[in-house]
């Protein structure tokens, strides 16, 4: 980093080294077998040392005994928030946890009451990373049982100014959408799309409809099938709004919906015709076929045909609230 300003900031940040971030905290629960059992089940750890009357807690549970839960720890000081605010003002508005280190000095047993203090141990010089440029902050929490140190937990995070998105670079051609993977099991679906038909597979053994396309019937195992043409009417059964991570060819935020067709099967697609924040569960939608990435028909919708480099995809237009 060049210039005097970052050095001046670093001096202000380093004034927080050694300051307490949390003082005289008490673990919300004493070390106990139910929490140990939940941990071991989540980790798939069947070591018998963690069971029975002589049980000890897994050493790596150390931090779990200090966690404040949703209601938090009331004994936090203002120091960490002040440090964080200084970095926000300097443009380091993003934060990511990078790593932790633990030392185990004595085993913890059911009944032990944990007390702990946290100190802001170090603030690094300004570093440039793949994510952006900023400062690594390391805190150290000392856990005690009575007056004896039981373990330490060093936690490191990067508080940084994110790089501008790569897409902002000029003259970068817009990435193309990923192409559907067409195989012999689903080729009929995409042939239907080329004709602007949304085809649903139907088991000729039991009549069950299915999507996505599969070689056999999940209900009866029959391998014979035909198709029915969907009406194209449906409703949003569920959805997510994608903000992050960015994918080439997509401009977040955008909604990805699980659409339930009138015939009962569901498919994943985009909802068009309404802003992403107007997509909702139950929203009526209707299929349309939209061509993407076709230079010769840029910006057109439902251009038809399969010529050119573009890809024709079924998407769902909101049947209300046209934008
Ligand atoms: Zn069947």
- Percent strand equals 25-35%
Identify low-pLDDT runs: 297-307
Name given to the CATH architecture of the largest domain = Roll
Helix/strand-derived class? Answer: mainly beta
- CA radius of gyration is 28 Å
Number of helices: 4
| Overall average pLDDT | 89
Got a strand count?
Answer: 14
Question: Within the CATH hierarchy, at the fold level, what is the topology of the largest domain?
Answer: Thiol Ester Dehydrase, Chain A
Main sheet overview: 6 strands, antiparallel
Query: What is the total domain count?
Result: 2
Task: Output the CATH class name of the largest domain.
Answer: Alpha Beta
Write the layout of secondary structure elements.
Blueprint: H1 5-14, E1 20-26, H2 33-43, H3 79-89, E2 94-104, E3 114-123, E4 127-128, E5 132-145, E6 148-162, H4 187-194, E7 199-203, E8 209-210, E9 225-229, E10 233-242, E11 254-261, E12 266-272, E13 284-292, E14 311-318
Parallel strand pairs: 12-14
Antiparallel strand pairs: 1-3, 2-6, 3-5, 4-5, 5-6, 7-8, 7-9, 10-11, 10-13, 11-12, 13-14
The structure holds zinc ion.
Description:
With 323 residues, this protein is mainly β. The protein has two domains: 7-162, Thiol Ester Dehydrase, Chain A (Roll), CATH 3.10.129.10; 187-318, no CATH class. The chain contains four helices and 14 strands. It has helices at 5-14, 33-43, 79-89, 187-194; strands at 20-26, 94-104, 114-123, 127-128, 132-145, 148-162, 199-203, 209-210, 225-229, 233-242, 254-261, 266-272, 284-292, 311-318. The strands form three sheets. Strands 1, 2, 3, 4, 5 and 6 form a six-stranded antiparallel beta sheet that branches. A five-stranded mixed barrel has the order 10-11-12-14-13. Strands 8-7-9 form a three-stranded antiparallel beta sheet, with helices on one face. Strand 11 (254-261) and strand 12 (266-272) form a beta hairpin. The chain is extended. The structure holds zinc ion (ZN). Zinc ion binds at residues 203, 205-206, 208, 217, 219-220, 222.
């Amino acid at each position: 980093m060049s210039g005097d300003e970052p050095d001046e900031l670093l001096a202000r940040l380093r004034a927080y080294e050694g300051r307490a971030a949390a003082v005289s905290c008490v673990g919300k629960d004493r070390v106990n077998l139910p929490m140990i059992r939940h941990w071991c089940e989540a980790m798939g750890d069947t070591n018998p040392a963690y069971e029975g009357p002589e049980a000890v807690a897994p050493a790596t549970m150390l931090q779990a005994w200090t966690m404040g839960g949703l209601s938090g720890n009331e004994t936090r000081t203002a120091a960490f928030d002040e440090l964080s605010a200084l970095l926000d003002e300097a443009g380091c508005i993003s934060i990511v946890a990078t790593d932790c280190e633990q030392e185990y000095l004595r085993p913890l047993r059911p009944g032990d009451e944990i007390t702990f203090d946290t100190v802001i141990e170090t603030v690094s010089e300004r570093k440039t990373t793949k994510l952006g440029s900023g400062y690594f902050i390391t805190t150290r929490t000392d856990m005690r049982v009575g007056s004896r140190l039981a373990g330490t937990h060093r936690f490191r995070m990067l508080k940084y100014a994110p790089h501008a998105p790569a897409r902002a670079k000029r003259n970068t051609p817009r990435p193309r959408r990923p192409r559907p993977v067409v195989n012999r099991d689903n080729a009929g679906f995409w042939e239907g799309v080329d004709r602007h038909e949304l085809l649903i597979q139907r088991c000729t053994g039991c009549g069950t409809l299915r999507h996505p396309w599969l070689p056999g019937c999940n209900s009866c195992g029959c391998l014979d099938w035909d198709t029915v043409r969907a009406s194209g009417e449906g409703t949003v059964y569920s959805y997510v709004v994608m903000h992050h991570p960015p994918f080439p060819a997509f401009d977040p935020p955008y909604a990805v919906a699980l659409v339930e067709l009138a015939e009962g099967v569901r498919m994943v697609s985009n909802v068009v015709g309404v802003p992403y924040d107007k997509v909702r569960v139950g929203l009526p939608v209707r299929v349309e076929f939209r061509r993407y990435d076709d230079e010769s028909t840029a910006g057109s919708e439902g251009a038809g045909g399969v010529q050119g480099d573009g890809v024709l995809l079924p998407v769902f237009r909101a049947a209300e609230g046209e934008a």
